[in-house]
User: What shape does this take?
Amino acid sequence: MTDPAALRRVETPVLVGRTGELHAVRDALAHPPAVVLVEGEAGIGKTRLIREALGHASVRGRTVLAGGCHPLREPFPYGPVFELLRRLEGRLPSDLNPVCGALRPYLPELGDRLPPAPEPLADPDASRHRLFRAVRALLDRVGGTVVVVEDLHWADEGTRDLVRFLVDDPPAGLGVVLSYRREELPGAGLPLGRAYRQPPGTTAVLVPLGPLDVPAVRSMTAALTGNARIPDALAEALHERTAGIPFVLEEVVRSLPGRLDGTDPLDAVGVPTRLHEAMADRLALLSPEATACVRAAAVLRVPSGEELIATVTDAGTDRDGEPWAGPALREALGAGVLHELGPDRYGFRHTLAQQAVYRSIPGPARRALHRRAVRALDGVRPQPVVHLAYHAKESADTAEWHRYGEAAARAAQRMGDLALAVQLLEDLLADARLAPLARAELATRLSRAAVHSVSHRQAAELLRRIVQDDRLPDPLRGEIRLNLGLLLHNHAGDYEQARADTEIAVEELRGRPALAARGMAALALPGWGDHPYPVYERWVTRAEALVAEESVEAGEADAALRMAVRGNHFTLRAGRGDPRVWEEAEQALREGERTGPEVRVQAARTWGNLADYAAWLGRDPLARRYCREAERLAGEHGATFVAGIAAGTGLRLDWHAGHWQELSARAHGILRDNPGVAPVAADAQLVLGQLALARGEWEEAATRLDAAGLADPDNAPAPVLAAASGARVRLLLSRGQTSAACALADRAVARVRRKDIWAWGAELTPMAVAAYVRDGRRSEAEAVTEELASGVAGLDVPLGRAAVDACRGILAAAGELHEDAAHSFSAARAGYAALPRPYAAARAGEAAARETLALGDPKTAPDMGGVAEEFAALGATRDAARCRRVLRGTGVVAPSRRGRRGYGDSLSPREREVARLVSLGHTNREIADVLFLSPRTIEQHVAKVLRKLGVSSRADVPADGT
Assistant: This one.
């Protein structure tokens, strides 16, 4: 007979990340007599685990007596045990052992069922022993009982002795579950007061609970929000902020706003009320000296040494003349409020705990602590100027804040940490008390740093306000506006505004020709804007002419400027597929690397741009090599934006090369590490969309492709937009939406035609041709095919040539010229495979196999089976299923390179596919559509998945099928 109300209320709706621990508790209780010790810090989920275990079939039907200890200043002896025994009212048998009468004074509610009270004993120890025997005899007679005593660390000595008496010799049918926080146990830190020795014939288990890992945090967040698709970045941010402690996680998640895309939702979440109250309760139990140490640690923010904490605390000495900071710190550690996070490094378990304490400190006291932190840190060498700037600001010392802040920004730039430099400069510029000249100088420094950093959002807003300030000196306005334009282009993806700002800046910089040339060179990048190719050529020609003029001052027309202009010209030529550009660019970049750091940063940027465009052309090995060069130089000089561009290009290359394992996780990681950097985000979203499309996750694919640029085509990188359009056209065709596919193809083809860089249409054009022929627009399909062929002729565009063969295959197939179609598709397959791009090659191979089957030769059926295996090996679920359906129609069984085997209680590959789609929330009919199977077959697969995973609901099926 379980009494759930006896356990304290727990909000968490599901138990996650505790499978092994749950089985351990259940197994122990299923084999009484049993003793279970559940150990873990506050909020770690001890009560939730116990409640889940008590709901299991092995416990159901037994009497559960649950209670807990309380942090009373004067605990009532044996109180927790007597409280839970009172719940036996109305449930006691009549033939109890006479010794149970000793309980009459303590359990008046049970007096009508208890035997008469025995005569008092003169010896207190004997009396106590008789009382313990009475409790044991009562539980023995009730039989089949589970006793739960929570928070044993708060137990009085008598209760601890009584519990130890029970577990040293438990009745045959008794299960005892004890929970406690080890850090709050008195004395030697033993839950029972001494080491527990397992009696013969007793099942005993210690179940320590640790923090949840990132996957468990994701699962718990999904359960709390009802949103099955928690972004990796959000799960990781939640794990970092909450340290994986379930109570803290629950409170934070319940405070989140409605949308959960990315890490931004956490910005609006402060310290949850219940967590603030919990920390206040724990501080109330500390001495004033220990509380002072905790407050000092909260002000310092980062794990700090004992001496620094003592200095900030302004610790004095006790009555004996001994410093009290050491004992006070040990008290805070013993109470679990502070934690030792490294050798002589003390701080909080998680950020929210630090924030809860910090916000509880009154303002004047907080500022005084910050002032002492400044004095303590000022003498450290080298000076921790970032921390000094923070403490000076919070102590309300504006002059010192500005001094330390500027020093910290300079130090960050020297170390190559441009993101930190941007953050520090943004903070300073937000101060309305800055003098106009100081503001202009800081804004110029900010604009220079922000261009090469991944931090940009606040910087762009600040710089926009500054260029509109009439007090800004004219010589600086053009430079700041130029850098603002580059910032909007490189990071925010606001191409239209970026181009407008850059063009205005070029005019404002007439007196500074070097910077004007840099702006012109930026306007020559072909991925920027929706202009014909000659427009970009004119800009780069103007830039080169300006650099070459004698009027350019020697100090400005330096090697870095020349590298920037020349590098952008190389990029422009590479974008179209100039076969001579690679050798010329490599020679120039190698020479430039032998000069100063500014030139090397420009070289890194050019390597990254060339890698990006080489990948769009199908020069994949070359693109990988250029990525490595860009990453090398970017790492040496802190050019995080360049590193992000190279990472995004590498992501696309791995997608094309079929390296799909962990690719989704990498894409999410790149999104997390480059927040708001539009070109990098576009690459990552494109890859995520293509992965989802290959796996039949249509809604996810549509969402990701929109994020890659389709939702805002005017501000998307041109080649990414073309590729995303091609993928979306394919998605629409797969769903039978031919008209919508043609409309999208029309817009996308028009953009490529206007720009006249057909190399970037290689991933779009075959899908546009497929849409046109399905809609009966053969003449347009033929025209686009010939435009592509003409646009890549004589250029270094191997991907474009393979795409031309694919387009011609589609046209021939539509005209039922099966032999010609098979020949063209085979040529396309060979072209894609040579790049190498195995997924594109497999798709062309599938089309070739269809055409050979259409010729009526059944001997070619195994070709389709081989393609199905290629798709399966890549993880292209839907493509593999489509090939198998065609194969079933021929009467041929698809071969398996792995061979058939029995899977027993493990999921088969098909069942894993079904499990993944179930975990994403798809219905049986939707899964059947994705896998080209009947709904009845899917129903059978789902039943097997649920049985093998041991879950009763589709909602409990994990994405990885384990």
